[in-house]
Design goal:
about 40% helix; about 240 residues; 8 helices; alpha/beta; single chain
């Protein structure tokens, strides 16, 4: 809390989202009470620091979640855990934002739509990272027959827009940071994405967000990167 206050008062910096260290937590394998207890310290930290979004993810490697009866059991457990956790977090003004990545289980548009409908909670939504969205539209990391929407990334954006509650802006060249890993993140304008069209596809939710965050994960960030991204966001 003291660090957050110093950042705000001395540097004008605030915290848009908290990414918790949940250790070995796999929310599709844990009992509801066990997962809630693992998440509670992070929810309390959000409250203490004035952060209203808590990032969650499946953490599960794609290869360990093959379709079948076990898939359905774990999917149901994931739904139960995130619905209950969203309830607990909502009581103190915090929302859960699930970040999907090509290397994590649930990396198809249809899976994400199904999950959000099943959780069915106003304090649960998606952290849409535009570089991850690009890779999902290409079927990256998906097991079996890839699910590639005919409308590409724009179709993916429109399908997930109703559940958007946090945004990460990053450009993409259509590659992964490493084989089997997460998406390559580039400064805005350095890749293939056309952000005006993409943000239009995320309406109306995108302009209701308190924050638009730039995500340059995996890069050694330079002053030039920051200036380019800041200018690009101002134009958008």
């Amino acid at each position: 809390r003291e660090i957050a206050a110093r950042l705000r008062d001395d540097a004008g910096v605030e915290i848009s989202v908290l990414v918790p260290d949940t250790g070995s937590c796999f929310p599709d394998e844990m009992a509801v009470e066990e997962y809630r207890d693992a998440l509670l310290p992070s929810i309390r930290l959000c409250v203490e620091c004035g952060v209203r979004i808590l990032r969650v993810c499946t953490r599960a490697p794609v290869a360990k979640r093959v379709p079948g009866e076990l898939y359905e059991q774990r999917f149901a457990q994931l739904v139960a855990n995130w619905r209950h956790a969203a309830d607990v977090a909502a009581d103190v003004g915090v929302a859960l934002s699930c970040e999907f990545e090509p290397c994590f289980w649930l990396n198809r548009p249809s899976e994400l739509e199904r999950l959000a409908v099943a959780v069915d909670h106003p304090s649960f939504g998606y952290m849409i990272d535009t570089s991850h969205l690009m890779m999902m539209s290409k079927g990256s990391g998906q097991l079996g027959e890839p699910e590639i929407p005919g409308g590409g990334i724009i179709e993916c954006a429109k399908r997930l827009q109703p559940w958007l509650n946090h945004l990460h802006l990053a450009d993409s060249d259509g590659t992964l940071l490493r084989p089997g890993g997460t998406s390559t993140h580039l400064p805005l304008g350095d890749g293939e994405l056309h952000f005006p069209d993409l943000l239009s596809a995320l309406e109306p939710r995108v302009h209701q967000l308190e924050w638009w965050s730039v995500d340059l994960f995996g890069r050694t960030v330079t002053d030039r990167d920051l200036r380019v991204c800041a200018d690009h966001v101002q134009e958008l």
